[in-house]
Amino acid sequence: MYRSSVFSPSADRVRSFLRLTPVAVLAMLAGACSSGPTPTTYDLSAPTSRIRGAAGVQVLVNEPAALQSLSTQQIIVKDASGAITFLGGGQWADNLPRLIQTRLINTFENASQLRGVSRPSSGAVADVQLISELRRFEVSTPDNMAVVEIAVKIVNDANGRIVSGRIFRGQVPVAAVDAANAARSLDEALSVVMLDIVRWVSGSRLPRREEPDQAGGSPPA
Question: Residue 60's closest CA among 112, 118, 3?
Fold first, then answer.
């Protein structure tokens, strides 16, 4: 009897091919994602100017609230229409609101006579808290300006009441719209804003928690 000699792959070969295919696809995707140069990482600085005032007050500095576009490590460019793009070749050293919180605490420590400045996660008991919102942190085109805008409120830590509030804004020209120049100008604009915040807090009449009685023992009869 005549039999057809049609090729049929063995079951073992089919199983081996199915096992290897996902691995090959993942390797191709990994190669595609890793293409291109690694972006340069840029940090933000904390000014060191000395500012007198508000001695003895303890302040907690919260992480600024921010829209999703600002809660990133990307360097933002915004045009006149409000369209947002991200500069290639550079990124911030940390998530931007968290990095600004750290540098603002450093600025208070460097510049003021405040008794203690920390973040809420430290567990410290404070007189006031700084609640803020990061409104702008971008290179604005076509005027090529680095713009930083932060709204800050001083809150009485004992009762949660807002003591005072203010919007701070700084802008510095950008020599060229690239990562290095944008990072440099945004850092300068932020330094102006942070020093203004420290001056404002240091010059404000701030509430203070009453110190607990440390004497101990029984009251006199």
Answer: 118
So what's the pLDDT on residue 21?
47
What is the distance between the alpha carbons of residues 219 and 221, in angstroms, rounded to a whole number?
6
Residue 112 forms part of a structural domain: yes
Sign of the Cα torsion 210, 102, 100, 72 reads negative
Of 140-144, 181-185, 208-212, the one with minimum mean pLDDT is: 208-212
Is 28's pLDDT higher than 60? no
* Mean pLDDT value of segment 168-196: 97
Global pTM value: 0.78
Provide the pairing of β-strand 40-42 with 84-92. parallel
Counted domains in the chain: 1
Collapsed DSSP state (helix, strand, coil) of residue 190: helix
Which tokens in the block code for residue 126? 């404070």
Please give the structure tokens belonging to residue 30: 């990994």
Strand partners, 201: none
Q: What is the pLDDT of residues 89-131, one digit of tens each?
A: 999 999 999 999 999 999 998 886 666 889 998 878 889 999 9
Question: For residue 134, what are the CA distances in angstroms to 88, 90, 105, 217?
Answer: 22, 20, 15, 49
Range of the domain at 146: 50-202
Could you count the other beta carbons within 10 Å of the beta carbon of residue 109?
15
Instruction: Read off the CATH number of the domain in which 139 is found.
Output: 3.40.50.10610
